[in-house]
Design goal:
12 helices, 5 strands, 11% strand, single chain, alpha/beta
Length: 283
Amino acid sequence: MYLDHFNLQTRPFNLRPDPAFLYPSDQHKLALAVLEYGLMEQDGYVVITGEIGSGKTTLVRHLLSKLDSTFDIGLISNTHSSFGDLLHWVAVALGIERSDKTDAELHQAFVDHIIGVYARGRQTLLIVDEAQNLDADSLEEIRVLSNINTEGSHVLQLLLVGQPELRDRLADRRVSQIAQRVSTHYHLEALNETAVGDYLNHRLMVAGAKRPLFSASAVALIAEASGGVPRLINQIADTALVYAFASDSPRVYEKTMRDVLRDRQHSRLLPVRTSDSRLAVSS
């Protein structure tokens, strides 16, 4: 809609996780280095946590794009207890045939699959997204599955990705054996105002922009309204570009940004963290 107006090749603030748009902030670079180290050194469980919309999925997809073919990767994204037995989801993620198998037979099929992958010179990486939804029993089931590893070889690596509640789950004494196996953990924090400006410009440049499209005052309002959470930044910035396009403005200025935030606040459906006083348009 606004691409031609701003000379963009693609939408810079699409909500879909896209590793091509990963903003290389200091913490994201460190998180990536920590994750790569944990996987390459085969150090047991690797855990990444962060608030909703903090960029965990984008970070993980960027990591996966860098892994070579020696990894056999399975992803579990349905972790709520209502979705059924975890072992069956593991089988689906790894492409293991599960029809007409008892739990014991399915577990043996899992073991055979992992060992077979390892025998071919590859390593299995099981990623569990939204892992904060796992209860103690499910976490214990994951621990049992990881018992396939021995001191001499880690044929299965586990990457747990979740919201901050995952840390509380792992601190539960009932799953202390898992916590003791977590060798690598990184928590993604929200971006500060300076980083928000850099984040906006980075995504704009990736999308083909030749210049910044947000004024300094507009960036400050986005930083406050989003709390520095990338997903909220994307939502607000994308809407702001639509408003600027509609008013035939070459950039997003403070007044446009205030209009966006006021309308979002009035809708009550889209989260905004800016106080009412900040939304008053100065004369």
